[in-house]
Design goal:
By secondary structure, the protein is an alpha/beta fold. It has a single domain, classed as Rossmann fold, CATH 3.40.50. About 40% of the residues lie in helices and about 15% in strands. The protein has eleven helices and eight strands. Helix 3 crosses helix 8. The longest helix is centred in the N-terminal third of the chain and has 15 residues. The chain is globular, with a radius of gyration of 17 Å. The two termini are about 30 Å apart.
Length: about 280
């Protein structure tokens, strides 16, 4: 998983990881994370599947997008589709987490022909896009000149990671410090990355996820809700609503985890995804 190619899309460059062979699985991360969020999961799945994990322009990417790039949620979904076109992945099982789960919902709702299966781990949904408490510091930082730069350098203090509105509210168990520090490097070092993150934050609105939820009531592909009942910012109530609204969806509870199930319980999540793909194979 060390090779990380970059593809030039209409809105700018996008780096991604592409490992393994077989049926493709696309992994979408959230804000202030990158494709490495899935490294423990893809390491176990790449023996049987093609695992694609892009570094979306959500603040932890290293190559800024073009200044005029559309980084609203629909614009980000278009980036994902362009990536799939560029790498020859016509139809994928899409796995989303956090903000990436909202993007996965939009992808399935508006472009169901590109989605073979939908897997949602704890993520933004319905009116919870973004979760208010978790995003309050980001919204403030994005609104204040120099705020994102200051946030990036402040997050070098690991004490801040332990706050419930920081990584302690996303991962139940300690994260690899090198990974977390790498996630903050982009906004510390690159004005273009800070611009991208600011545009992403401005574009977040529950109108996107509410509209997607309406369309997902007609989604006719297999869906798995792999939810962590302890996740503080994405409570089980949201997972249960998705289960009720998506026809034929199944619910699998991932215990001893918060939002970052790929970090807290990677083996458990892998088992859930494997079982789901096996049971819904064509």
């Amino acid at each position: 998983m060390t090779d990380q190619p970059e593809v030039r899309l209409a809105a700018g460059p996008l780096r991604y990881r592409d490992a393994g062979s077989g049926e493709p699985i696309l992994f979408l991360h959230g804000i202030l994370a990158d494709g490495l969020l899935w490294r423990k999961v893809t390491a176990l799945l790449m023996t049987d599947f093609r695992c694609i994990s892009p570094d979306l322009p959500l603040g932890s990417h290293r190559s800024p997008m073009d200044p005029a790039a559309d980084l609203t949620p629909p614009g980000l979904v278009r980036l994902v589709i362009e990536l799939l076109d560029a790498i020859g992945a016509d139809e994928v099982t899409v796995v989303g987490n956090d903000t990436g789960g909202a993007l996965a919902q939009l992808l399935a709702a508006h472009h169901p022909e590109r989605v073979r299966r939908l897997v949602l781990t704890p993520c933004d949904a319905y009116e919870n896009f973004p979760p208010r408490a978790l995003f309050l510091p980001l919204r403030i930082a994005a609104a204040v000149p120099g705020g994102l730069l200051l946030l990036g350098w402040a997050m070098r203090m690991r004490l801040l990671w332990r706050l419930p509105i920081s990584f302690a509210g996303l991962a139940k168990h300690p994260l690899d410090p090198a990974i977390v520090d790498g996630w903050m490097e982009g906004i510390r070092r690159d004005r273009g990355v800070r611009h991208d993150l600011r545009e992403v934050i401005r574009g977040l609105s529950p109108s996107h996820t509410m509209a997607a939820a309406e369309r997902l009531r007609r989604f006719d592909k297999p869906a798995l809700i792999a939810w962590a009942p302890e996740a503080p910012h994405f409570t089980l109530a949201y997972g249960q609503r998705l289960l009720e609204d998506i026809p034929g969806a199944r619910l699998d509870l991932i215990a001893d985890s918060y939002t970052f199930v790929s970090e807290d319980q990677p083996e458990r999540l892998v088992a859930s995804i494997r079982d789901f793909i096996r049971d819904t194979g064509e």
